[in-house]
Target: Recombination protein RecR
Amino acid sequence: MQYPAPIAKLINSFTKLPGIGAKTAARLAFYVIDMPETDVTEFAQALVNVKRDLTVCEICGNISDTNPCQICQDESRDQSMVLVVEDARDVMSLERMQEYHGLYHVLNGVLSPMEGVGPEDLNVPALINRLHDETIQEVIIATNATAEGEATAMYLARLLKPAGIKVTRLAHGLSVGSDIEYADEMTLYRAIEGRREI
Ligand SMILES: [Zn+2]
Model:
């Protein structure tokens, strides 16, 4: 027996979400059928609004409901530092820490020759543009500790250093609460390389 068309359509929509297979999609669809109508309307509205009300900040590339975003607009933040991340979600993680008070720049990806992603596909020109303003003195590269993240960091360092900008990279090493015994060789190597005086 086939599902009635509205249910089939909803199941199909749920399968477009990451990590949701046909079975889970069907379970969610039937759950929605039993939900109060006000909740369903609110849920549907939230889905529409998240697309309609969000925009990309023209300065830093962050996802925001204002343009420029609130971080770029905040004059109390340290204007001499820009932290470069792969993704807008990274900005949110770093903001949760509440210890970084500089600015951000979102690349929207990393260099990946395998997937055909080159420098022209990243939000790099806007970064170069921002550096023409001499208030920025340090660029902290916070791409992920993956091969692509490293290659992107090296590319940016080569690009920015000749302009006299201080380019730093987030430290990589042992995670808090971990044992040296269980750390992999690359992590240990990075931890030794990134050691600092105490
Ligand atoms: Zn911004």
Observations:
- The CA atoms of residues 15 and 23 lie 9 Å apart.
- The first strand starts at residue 55 and ends at 56.
